[in-house]
Please model this.
Amino acid sequence: MGGLTEWLLDSDPALRWQVQRDLLCAPEEVWRATRGLVAVEGFGARLLGLQGVDGMWGGGAFFPLGYDGKEDGQPWTATTWSLNSLREWGLDASVLQARRTVELLAEGCRWEYEGLPYWGGEVDCCINGWTLANGVWLGAPVEGIAEWFVSHQLEDGGWNCEWGAGAARSSFHSTLNSLKGLLAHELATGGTPETRAARRKGEEYLLERRLFRRLSTGEPVGEWATRFRSPFRWEYSVLNAADYFWQAGVRDPRMAEAVELIRRARQADGTWLQGGRHPGRVWFEIDVEPGEPSKWLTLVGARVLRWWG
Model:
């Protein structure tokens, strides 16, 4: 990879350790040492410094304290989004465990929806997926959320955050975020026969649709499926989905067309361009402006293509 490798390695520890592990196949002691820096350098240390004495970020569960819904875009500063970032960046759970984060959130953090207890989850599939993943990472009591996904899986095999409003057809976005939570649970605990079956059924929902096509017509589900934005946040894309299947170790021929779309988006210099930022308040930016080469997207795109072979 030459110069591309050097460019990727000249980055925050949160990204650099993944380059070492997933693209360079560095010895485990090398990438683990880099991952250990997440707690004390760069993005990870900066975000850790913003945690309140109550264990929360921004004083809220999904939205920061005082959010009135009138801002341009959703704020990405509250507790759930901050935990998502730290987990995805590879922070060792022991750092937050030493701060009694699980206990503090159990004591004082409530969802904006009906004041439900934080580690009990909510009614939104995506929120529950993230809370399940964050919970098993930190050792919180979230087994009930895993079981919730089994009972709230729709007939077509996926999930939809609008199920409470009567939605009977699954959403690509909701299904992928649900699958990520179930995979994290399964990797951490082994899962149960029911949660493992639900995850396989959810994967089939996406695979039947080739990761981006409507089952009814075969047409692309939307332009967002091939728009790559970093960080991914809640949004579905074939790159986001393929990265999930890479982590799950599921290599299915029905993904081939989607992988080819990822390959075509690669620039001549081997990079992938930032497709845009999700509007909304952030603690600090971690990626480039739209249209510029993104190290985060290049990491994900390169490891998906390397895995696909």
In short: The longest helix spans residues 172-189. The chain has a mean pLDDT of 97. Residues 1-40 form one domain. The radius of gyration is 19 Å.
